[in-house]
Specification:
The structure holds two protein chains of two kinds.
Chain A: E1 2-6, E2 9-11, E3 33-35, H1 37-51, E4 57-64, H2 68-78, E5 82-87, H3 98-112, E6 116-120, H4 131-139, E7 142-152, E8 156-163, E9 166-173, E10 176-180, H5 192-198, E11 203-206, E12 219-225, E13 234-236, H6 239-249
Chain B: E1 3-6, E2 9-10, E3 13-14, H1 16-26, E4 32-38, H2 42-49, E5 54-61, H3 70-81, E6 86-90, H4 93-106, E7 110-114, E8 116-117, E9 122-127, E10 132-138, E11 143-147, E12 162-165, E13 175-182, E14 195-199, H5 209-219, E15 222-225, H6 227-231, E16 252-256, H7 262-265, E17 273-278, E18 291-294, H8 297-307
Parallel strand pairs in B: 1-4, 1-6, 4-5, 5-12, 6-11, 7-11, 14-15, 14-16, 16-17, 17-18
Antiparallel strand pairs in B: 2-3, 8-9, 9-10
Helix pairs in contact in B: 3-4, 5-8
Classes of the chains: A alpha/beta, B alpha/beta.
Chain lengths: 252, 308
Amino acid sequence: MKILVPVKRVLDYNVKARVKADGSGIDLANVKMSMNPFDEIALEEAIRLKEKGNAEEIIAVSIGVQQNQETLRTALAMGADRAILVVATDDVHNDIEPLTVANILAAITLKEGPSLVLCGKQAIDNDFNATAQMLSAKLKWSQATFASEIDVREDMVRVTREVDGGLQTIDAKIPAVVSVDLRLNEPRYASLPNIMKAKRKPLEEISPAELGVEITQRLKVIKTKEPDSREAGLILENIDQLVEKIQENVGG
Amino acid sequence: MKILVLAEINNGELAEDQTSKTVSAAATLGKVDVLCASNNCSNASTNVAKMENVENVIVLEDEIFAQGLAESYSETLIDTINLYSHVFAPSSSFGKNVLPRIGGMLDVMVISDVSKVISEDTFERPVYAGNAIQTVQSVDKVKLISVRTSNYSAVPSTGSANIKKIDCIGKNPLTTFIENRMQTSDRPELTSAKVVVSGGRGVGSKENFEIIEGLADKLGAAVGASRAAVDSGFAPNDWQVGQTGKVVAPDLYVAVGISGAIQHLAGMKDSKVIVAINKDEEAPIFQVADFGLVDDLFKAVPEIEKKV
């Protein structure tokens, strides 16, 4: 079977987001961008499924600006077989909403015919946690979110989900959309030879219009501001002082 | 404007705190109806009917709703949901699973993790692990809102809503529930506890985590953990506090052996008072803590437990 893995280019997770002075958003000019960590985990899982013989081909998709091809080259270097870049905007500050992303991915899914779409559970920039669920609804496929274990069987995939209170296991009929959580695996680093090989792997560019999808924005961002900040407090000298502070604030 | 709240009911048991705080957020806009869908709603619907600002409790019972599977929920309830202009759910694993699927079906965006309801179409929500707060205005015909419940207080139980039962035939040909492996505990629930004691990588092992649990039990607190501690297997996944775990805002948060990565701070920096114990005086956690102690946690925590 084929596996489709959407990968988003986001502000690197080690870089602190800075709000632009005019309140129009986060400053993304001249900052380090990387693959969304959850998408890396999804891709790693797809590669492992291929290594186990559960899948024949892995297609990575990225939606955004032209520079997303760097993210796709990383995906190819990790082990994706080919890549599709959907150039949906020329401004990196223009975040494409999960609903539009789901529409684009649904169109690509119909074209490419994967049996499984593996998504990161959320992008660490907009923190929506929505694309997989929306895509699953659009395709009328089964949905398994927040996966910490994935076991592909004949006509279904057994997924252990991280939920409030513990873990839940479900069987999702294939075709399925699965969103992955942090503890599913630890993604590999691309080796230098694989980075070189990735340069020769196919990367196709396509526009939303060619897929028949319109880019819409349902949520207008009116303002972006810094959160209320906390100030550093007191460093206490000894345990007794700390005990006193804890007692003052328990049941207060 | 017609407002619906999706009550979170797990296998017949109402997640009362989450549901009540979601009602509280939704009631900013007016009276609300609450949808109770589970295998057995008798206790849940009685409790929801008492929540202030609830007008009608709509009850649908079917075995298929017991485990909150997204397909059962969204496919079966879409006709009921379609009668409303605003649909709120808690931003819990239940709400995050179900609400965007409904969005996909209705072709509307979901407004996740709303920390403040400003008006009927304008909302505040944190982005970038809480490093920025965005104000967004929705142009969709239906607003789907998941609520960051730690920003709201529960509503008082002074109401008396009507309870209406609707017949339904549950559908879900796509997914099958196999099992739950839930953490059982006598401690308060992490997201609603007044006091939380959390441990990080510095705790070192699963066995050592008993030190954290000991202090928590002495204080009547819930136990939390940083991602590093959960990834290392010191603590179960549902203890994780942070951007991708739970968001808490207790009266007192005690961070032990937690360095304070931005992803962790995203889950606890709205706590009223933060206390940090770490042997590294440069740890970023001290920049948000009201009170800090630079000390070896293995020496300090047992002594604190004895003295409090």
